[in-house]
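pasting for ref. prot 1 ->
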Amino acid sequence: MGDDLIEEKKLGAIAREFREAAGKSRAEAARELDVARPTIFQAEEEPEQGLTKLRKRIIEEYSDFEVVGPFYVLQKKG
């Protein structure tokens, strides 16, 4: 990753990868992000759902990246 352009529909899978790498379950992430557990599932597994803001929050919470859009480039924080 880095300065590569990422399609919006791929953000969910990336969010899941970072959450899992951080050792967080969907339930833990839901509590930490103040959303329902099924919403985390939808954000990660159902790209047709309009949950882009949540996908960005998951990525930014559980990685060293921030999501810069609308072209969705991941950049190192800081």
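and prot 2 ->
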Amino acid sequence: MGPFDRYYVNRALFGVYFESDIYDRACGAAPAAMRVFQWRMDPAFKARKLIFVHVPRAAGMSVAQALGARLQSHYSMRYYRAVAPRFAAEADSFAILRDPFERFASAYAVVRAGGAEKVRLASPFLRQTGHIRSIDDYLTWLEAREPLQRDHVMRPQSWYITDLASGEVLVKRLFLLGAETEALADYLRGHGVGPLGWINRSERLPLHLTSQQCLRVVKLYRQDFELIGALRAARAREAAARRVDQAAALKIAAE
């Protein structure tokens, strides 16, 4: 790490480590002015009329690669709505969410390893988390920091897809990793996107959380649990409605 490490320069000048966070803060402070950055919209999104909000540790790099988009583009939907409001309103948008316990385990593995297959932790977080040797160490470190003071893999999934003030989901479609593989594949095929690969894997560590640790994870990522709970409930209602429709159709056919 040199004296002009870009993350520390960002932190000194803007109070955040990542360039994407500089823009995200500006979206809240001066949303109208952000329209001058329309040119920063990923060309792959423009070509497909599709915005993918990349939630880290939820197959995001695999999807970005399939789309032909930038692999490490961790911008929130707030950012896309601010820089290109008309495009964001007209285009499809989606994100993939992951069971919060599974994602916590994946992020913990990344922290302990200092990165994943394709991407290392940003230098400030390599340095700040070098002492972590246990789940409790990691939880304590997280609990002492707001989302903008954590690496992207550590932030709540809700941070990327919601209005931070109201909690409103801003993307048009959500998928649950591992539970909606076929639905996601169908959706992507509809946008001319082929099968997904699997990149940026991390070596998983055996992770057995105590009841107290589970409670701490739930507190840290409460909105994620609520979002995914609501998503699962909605899918259950949709499945029940389909069964009712199928039963009605069979009854009519039999008459």
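The CA atoms of residues 136 and 212 lie 10 Å apart.
Strands lie at 50-53, 92-97, 173-176.
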